[in-house]
Amino acid sequence: MLYISSLCSKKNKIGNAVCQLAELGFKNIELTGGTIFYNNFESDLISLQKEYKLDYLIHNYFPPPKKDFVINIASRKFDIKKRTIALVKEALRFARKFGKNLYTMHPGFISELLPELKDKFFIKDGRTINLKEDFYKAVESLSEEVIPINFRIGVENLGLKTANDKFSFLCGSDDVEQFLIYFRNNERVGLLLDLGHLNVASQILRFDRDLFLDRIVDNYGKKIFAFHLSENNGHIDSHRVLPVDSWQIKYLMKYRKIFSNVPIVFEWHDAASKQTYEHFKIIEDVLN
């Protein structure tokens, strides 16, 4: 099934964002970050779901917390770790409320980060370094102690700024494959494969994007729980609308039988318009 990200709307309240997208014609919406907390957001979403017959997915920084922070499952700071787990628990509650057995989230960040952006990246908070082992153990703990039975969590590969400045885990091809190998026997943990992030990472880290994609489908196809799609130039993760002839669309067409039941989310930022919806429908027809 194809979804549009709530980030497609510029509205700063999730209810207004969903309403705008629903009025354009979108029925399947991934709820994520980028909006502010307000008291009635949950009832707004339920009302909109009933009115427009919407289907929701839950991703990462949702629901919006009262106090802003950077979700970081690998954090060694007690307060950040505690708030991250609390947000994940709330996200799981929403997912189950909306009839889903999947929640997707960002991987852990190597450095502690402030909820402030510079050049589209969070600002580092001091010199605290989180280890890959912290990240793996945290995801393992979620799968064993927090995630309900018959529920899955998809962890997203991210892009990076430069080859020497990785903010997060799961940037390079080796990072992703090691993660998949580590959790190969854990059916509840998998990958949210962001093809836009992968495009940037492959250019900066100089690995063969297409060869990598074919390899993980062959070896770990069942571990890919969801996709994010957006266009960029390979240098900056700009989250633009995909052209119909994008390599990402061709990739999904190549493996459509394998991924027929995997959610595909178009993560197009600030692009809510009738033209965007019509373009979305054209791609939907191509992929179906």
* Class from helix and strand fractions: alpha/beta
Overall number of strands:
10
Q: Please write the CATH class name.
A: Alpha Beta
Tally of alpha and pi helices: 9
The CATH topology is given as TIM Barrel
Unreliable runs:
none
Shape: globular
Q: How far do the termini sit from each other?
A: 9 Å
What value does the average pLDDT take? 93
Element string (H = helix, E = strand): EHEHEHEEEHEHEHHEHEH
Number of domains: 1
Keywords:
288 residues; TIM Barrel; eight-stranded parallel barrel; two-stranded antiparallel ribbon; 9 helices; 19% strand
Could you characterize what this model shows?
The chain has 288 residues and is an alpha/beta fold. 39% of the residues lie in helices and 19% in strands. It contains 9 helices and 10 strands. It has helices at 14-24, 41-52, 78-97, 132-146, 173-182, 195-205, 209-220, 247-254, 274-287, and strands at 2-5, 28-31, 55-59, 102-105, 111-118, 121-129, 152-156, 189-194, 224-229, 264-266. An 8-stranded parallel beta barrel has the order 1-2-3-4-7-8-9-10, surrounded by 4 helices. A two-stranded antiparallel ribbon has the order 5-6. Helix 1 packs parallel to helix 2 (41-52). It is globular. The mean pLDDT is 93.
Q: Nutshell version of this structure?
A:
The chain is an alpha/beta fold.
Question: What is the strand and helix layout of this fold?
Answer:
Blueprint: E1 2-5, H1 14-24, E2 28-31, H2 41-52, E3 55-59, H3 78-97, E4 102-105, E5 111-118, E6 121-129, H4 132-146, E7 152-156, H5 173-182, E8 189-194, H6 195-205, H7 209-220, E9 224-229, H8 247-254, E10 264-266, H9 274-287
Parallel strand pairs: 1-2, 1-10, 2-3, 3-4, 4-7, 7-8, 8-9, 9-10
Antiparallel strand pairs: 5-6
Helix pairs in contact: 1-2
